[in-house]
Design a protein that fits this description.
The protein has 18 helices and 14 strands. The chain is an alpha/beta fold. It has two domains: about 200 residues, MutS, DNA mismatch repair protein, Chain A, domain 3, CATH 1.10.1420; about 230 residues, Rossmann fold (3-Layer(aba) Sandwich). Strands 10-11-12-8-13-14 form a six-stranded mixed sheet, with helices on both faces. A hairpin with a 2-residue loop joins β13 and β14. α5 packs antiparallel against α10 and α6 crosses α7. The longest helix has about 60 residues. About 0% of the residues have low confidence.
Length: about 525
């Protein structure tokens, strides 16, 4: 049986170790936990043991590699079924390594090691039975490499002989039913020394008459106990009562010590090294499985899904046809209203206005989700999409008052925005929803104008969703202010209202100046006419 290390290094999410290292070394913000939570990505992809943002990238080659892999995952349900069985097995291997201790001195650790090898063979057998029959069907580089690894592992001498080896090794421990103890006595018949004489595959039998009658066996042999060993008395302490148990455990560890040493060489020489790649893949496996399950749910809900056409990051393109918010799609039992959305040379920063509950926040998050899903290698919720990946996604949404005692709410909002400007680049995406709503309309409009001009000067893509209709009316003024700074253009979007009803359509046009306040008051029964009727009653 060979103990040669096979040097298997596979990732479902990175085409090479260099790509993984490059992604980890990038110093941009990427997709922070705060932004992932604001976009409700954890409601979308319900991972527990990993952070979604850890897998975000703007590397086009890496994204294409993942798109291939997710195409295989969605086309072959057998893969998801395999992952559901694989994840707990690898999790058990990880936990056994943590609990195993030093196998040179512990019979318990010996059992841990045997169990780890059994789990290892279960994992490799699962890969063999699921993946190898799919060879030729799976097209992605990730699964092609995983199939090749499964073939190498299952053809190794170790795998071919492992079941026989396990049978021999486990029989030494798991078939042990009793031990024969020898006790030397002194001239006063007091115990002088004791030790284990034999390890037996049968349990000893009680020699008491009642027990013989109950089992209808009156014969005695070497496995019949002539007197029970009872070290426990009422007047003994707990420590004294445990003394025999500890003594027996130590003796059994000595009995199996040579087996443990030889088994340790097998574990360290092969199993430990050749399960490392599986343990490294565990967070990826969970993410890929949960993401694939989400794609299945979205498809069942009728949400469109398409793998975006990728362009270079520097082009800063985003052109989506029939874009939907995937989180809303999962929540609702009715189809979500799709919208076309585009960043282009005439509009790279948008001021988005319209009535309450008209779809402003929904489309803002939909754009954020599309960029996030692209960076994760997933299809986006649209009929068609062309996109330049972003290096970072920033959100500035309403939040609680955890930092408002010293700064005040407006101060807290400004502080968070200042942090964004410290990290943002011209390849970033920034999404603001009702920023500066903690102050008056005039002050809010002034501050918002400064911020929007700043984002335009940076050259990033962005949406500012707001009730500040005065701000939307000033886009020409803001563009004029940024002239000569190589700034991107600021344009308007409006959440459409038709006949007093919200259509949830987002249109690229200048707002009509209506605040829709009367409409909102009427909807919630707060119009003066409704209030007068209540007073009369």
């Amino acid at each position: 049986m060979t103990d040669k290390k096979l040097n298997i290094n596979i990732s479902l999410l990175y085409p090479s170790e260099e790509a993984r290292s490059a992604a980890l070394s990038v110093k941009s913000v990427g997709l922070s936990e705060y932004t992932a939570e604001q976009l409700e990505l954890y409601r979308l992809i319900e991972v527990v043991n990993c952070n979604i943002g850890d897998f975000f990238t703007n590397d086009v080659e890496t994204i294409l590699y993942r798109q291939e892999m997710f195409r295989d995952m969605t086309a072959c349900p057998e893969l998801s079924a395999m992952f559901r069985r694989l994840i707990p097995l690898i999790g058990d291997i990880t936990e056994l390594r943590r609990l195993g201790g030093d196998p040179a001195f512990s019979a318990e650790a010996y059992l841990y090691s045997i169990t780890e090898v059994e789990l290892y063979t279960s994992v490799i057998t699962l890969l063999k039975e699921t993946l190898i029959p799919l060879k030729g069907t799976l097209k992605s580089r990730a699964f092609t490499m995983l199939i090749d690894a499964a073939e190498v592992l299952t053809q190794s001498e170790y795998y071919k002989n492992i079941n026989k080896q396990l049978e021999e090794l486990t029989s030494r421990v798991r078939e042990v039913k009793s031990v024969t103890i020898g006790v030397n006595l002194d001239s006063s018949l007091k115990a002088e020394s004791a030790g284990v004489l034999a390890v037996n595959n049968d349990k000893f039998k009680s020699g008491q008459l009642l027990d013989k009658i109950l089992r209808l066996d009156f014969k005695s042999n070497e496995m019949t106990c002539i007197a029970p060993l009872t070290p426990f008395r009422r007047d003994q302490s707990e420590n004294q009562q445990l003394a025999l148990t500890y003594a027996l455990s130590a003796a059994l560890s000595d009995v199996f010590r040579s087996s443990i040493r030889s088994w340790k060489r097998v574990i360290q020489g092969y199993v430990l090294e050749n399960t490392d790649f599986l343990i490294r893949m565990l967070p990826e496996l969970e993410f890929v499985l949960k993401a694939t399950e989400t794609l299945s749910v979205l498809a069942e809900k009728g949400c469109p899904l398409t793998y975006p056409e990728l362009t270079s990051n520097s082009e800063r393109i985003f052109d989506a046809v029939g874009l939907c918010n995937p989180v809303v799609s999962i929540k609702l039992d009715v189809p979500v209203v799709p919208n076309d959305f585009k960043f282009d040379e005439n509009g790279t920063i948008y001021v988005l206005t319209g009535p309450n509950r008209g779809g402003k926040s929904v489309i803002t998050c939909a754009v954020g989700c599309a960029f996030a899903m692209t960076g994760l290698g997933l299809p986006v919720p649209a009929e068609k999409c062309v996109i330049s990946p972003t290096d970072s996604i920033f959100t500035h949404f309403p939040q609680g008052s955890e930092d408002t005692i010293d700064k005040g709410r407006l101060g807290e909002e400004c502080s968070r925005l200042e942090g964004i400007f410290d990290s943002i680049t011209n390849e970033s995406l920034v999404l603001l929803d009702e920023s500066f709503s903690s102050t008056g309309a005039f002050e809010a409009s002034v501050i918002a104008g400064e911020v929007i001009c700043g984002f335009a000067a940076v050259g990033c893509r962005g949406i500012f969703s707001t009730h500040l209709h005065d701000l939307a009316a000033r886009t020409d003024e803001l563009n004029a202010r940024c002239e000569g700074m190589n700034a991107v253009k600021i344009d308007n979007l409006v959440a459409e209202v038709t006949g007093g009803e919200r259509s949830f359509r987002i249109l690229r046009k200048s707002p009509d100046g209506k605040s829709y306040a009367a409409d909102i008051a009427k909807k919630y029964g707060l119009s003066f006419d409704v209030i007068k009727d209540k007073i009369k009653k």
